[in-house]
Amino acid sequence: MNPDELIWATRGRTWGFRFLRDGGEPDPLPVYESAFRGVGGDSEVCRAAGDRIAVRFADPEGRIDRAGRVIPHEFVVPGAQAEALTSIDAARALIWPLVMDEYARAWDTQA
Fold first, then answer.
1. Which is it for the CA torsion 69, 13, 66, 93, positive or negative?
2. Under a CB-based contact definition with an 8 Å cutoff, are residues 107 and 63 in contact?
3. What is the mean pLDDT of the segment spanning 54-60?
4. Backbone angles phi, psi at 91, to 5 degrees
5. Are 44 and 56 in contact (CB under 8 A)?
6. Could you tell me which residues are beta bridge partners of residue 19?
7. What share of the chain in percent tops pLDDT 90?
8. Helix (H, G, I), strand (E, B) or coil at 55
9. Which domains, ranges and CATH numbers included, belong to the chain?
10. Shortest CA distance to 6 belongs to which of 44, 42, 56?
11. Number of other CB atoms surrounding residue 69 within 10 Å
12. What confidence score (pLDDT) does residue 18 get?
């Protein structure tokens, strides 16, 4: 799986939702919104959205923001990379190792 092709939105200890990866899209927001349309507030998601997969899971390290909310990680995975994502557990196992170090560095920075 190529992490450069992922769209990844999350928040940190003190900063609100932002994109940490844009998947090479000049504006990842429309792709992200399309993939997550209709998902609502489900805490875990792994579902097809056209030729992509929308994935949401709680921070595997159990991090919470300063307001005490669980940190969610939301990914849009493109095309062929999405084929291996058959469940939320598979998605977490495949995606998290690709981004966990990056998030550890970003998580406690200021907005």
1. positive
2. yes
3. 94
4. -60, -50
5. yes
6. 9
7. 47
8. strand
9. 3-106 (3.30.450)
10. 56
11. 9
12. 92
